[in-house]
Structure formats: structure tokens, C-alpha cells
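**Protein record**
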Amino acid sequence: MLIFNCSEAASNFFSRVHKGKKITPVEKPPSPVIEDYESGEFVEQWLVHATTVQRKHVLYVIHVQTRYCMIFADAKKADVDGFIQRFAERWINGVMQHAGQHDLLRWFNDEIISDRFEKTWDEYVFYKRGHRGAQKHINEISWIFEDCVAEYGTLPSDEFSAGRFDANMNDNLRSSKEHKDYFSPDEEMIVHWLRHYGGLDDSAVQAARERRTEVKREIWALERQLTDQGK
């Protein structure tokens, strides 16, 4: 199950008025605390927030556990089906692109992941409910996004451009009370996928972590080399 916990602004975004009556998919949660409810192997908790940038609706969606985020610019108000489709495509593409760039695809069994992933997509629900830690990260990301839009003068022109912004944000180290040390959201999301959808054990997951670290170092070394050559 996908659980989208909506801020006040996000709740208003997904709602509309028809013949004077408010129509909304956002329900009252069984508990005001995310951690009190719906934990399980195939339950995904996300926090959603909405703002307006250059008179366009922008949605910020962050995975509560890993702090992996996605930004959806020029979102259509109250279009739940459109949001779900964009969300699914961006999430899958973002994870697989990161895996490919860091030589991790050997740990991805497409058949197993697809079968287990379908169990998550069987159902989704929208709750009006917040999360202080995740909201703090969304606020930081929204400030950065608005600065980028102000600098370039426009919102991301397509899903590829938006995905690049996602990747930059998810490469930043973050902290939360659930983690003892700073962590990288994109790494934690890869690990999350390998465990929950790939069914890998701890030793295989650790091997993937180590390979990702090796590739990151190779990328950094190449970037330094290119910088030195350009001087």
C-alpha cells in the first residue's frame, strides 16, 4: 500500500469543489502519528506538500523512511490519477537510473522486483497527516527549488529535467532521528528496494553498498582529473 500523508496545502491541492460541495480523496488518518500505523513489508509512507511557484502548482513528495524526494512541477490540481502515474514513473526511473549509473543492476532481479512491487501498488490512500522531520527536509528542498527557478527563470521543462533536480537533492547528506549518522537518500532508497522488493539478504545488500561507494569514488576521481586538466 502506498500511503500519501498530506500537509494542509497538499490536502487543498488534491481537493476540489463541485456544486458547492468539497470533493477530496484525503481521509482522516486512524492515528495522527505516522509511526503508529501501517508498518509492513509492502507499505510505503510518503509525505506530500504543495506550493505555488511562478503561478504553477508544485508538489514535493518525500519518503518518510529514507528521505528520498521527488518534485513535480506544474501539477494539475485535484488530478489524483495523473499524480499517481507521474509518481510511479519518476520513482521507478529514478531508482533504476541511479542503479545503472553506479553498477548495481546485477543485484536487481526484474522478475522478483516486479512481482513484489505489484503488491505495493494494489492500493493507495491519502491521509491528512504530517511528519515534523520529513516536513523540515521538504521545506529545505522547496527553498532550493525556488532559488533554482529564480536563477533559471523557469520551472523544469520536462520529466528528465525534474529528475535531474531530484537526483541532486537525493545525493545530499541528511540526518534524522531514525539514523545514527548522516545518510544519503539515494543510497538508502536503493537499499530499501533491494531488501523489500529484491528480497536480498544483508550480505548481498552490503555488497551492493560497497560497490556503490567504489563507483562514487571513481566518479569523484574522474571529476577531479577533468577539473585539473581544465586549469
Remarks:
- The chain has one domain: 2-226.
- Residues 107 and 208 are 7 Å apart (CA to CA).
